[in-house]
Inverse folding.
């Protein structure tokens, strides 16, 4: 389906619209469907999106850039841990709750301070479950490979009827999985959003 923003959580003295504005500012020009969803929501809310400088995509982790002189990060726990951010237990609780609902929860940081969470859900197409069932009936093994976290991946897999899930993968990890599958079974087909 089409991803959309479901939640914006403010974690500091900055309001929700500022969290979304900064997240969208660094995502402008992104090719990733989740980034496009964030920008679309910010525009829907008529938020002014300043230009970003020093944009950098960090595959499998997130993105960073400079917005009005502020260093903004948007991404997963790994990115924030690597950058020295402290993720407090109450923030972890928010993330877990969103992920258990099948949402992709992304942290937003500014100048070393964790300022919020933006969650995006990719609404499943109605025929997704039927497609997986039809493939399984034909003895086609269906596997979910995702860069998303384990909780979100398991929730989505459960909705569509996929039993085998590989989560927290970087693009190169997905390639390695597919090569391994090719060695094991031969023919492999991949369906994705086009980013990989």
């Amino acid at each position: 389906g089409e991803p959309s923003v479901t939640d914006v959580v403010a974690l500091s003295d900055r309001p929700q619209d500022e969290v979304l504005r900064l997240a969208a500012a660094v995502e402008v020009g992104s090719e990733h469907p989740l980034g496009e969803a964030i920008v679309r929501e910010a525009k829907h809310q008529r938020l002014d999106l300043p230009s970003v400088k020093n944009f950098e995509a960090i595959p499998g982790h997130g993105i960073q850039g400079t917005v009005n002189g502020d260093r903004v990060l948007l991404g997963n726990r790994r990115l924030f841990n690597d950058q020295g951010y402290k993720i407090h237990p109450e923030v972890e609780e928010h993330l877990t709750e969103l992920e258990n609902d099948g949402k992709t929860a992304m942290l937003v940081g500014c100048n070393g301070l964790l300022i919020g969470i933006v969650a995006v859900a990719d609404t499943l197409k109605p025929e997704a479950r039927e497609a997986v069932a039809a493939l399984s009936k034909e003895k086609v093994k269906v596997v979910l490979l995702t860069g998303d976290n384990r909780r979100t991946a398991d929730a989505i897999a459960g909705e569509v009827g996929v039993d085998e899930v590989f989560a927290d993968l970087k693009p190169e990890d997905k390639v390695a999985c597919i090569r391994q599958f090719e060695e094991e079974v031969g023919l492999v087909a991949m369906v994705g959003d086009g980013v990989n």
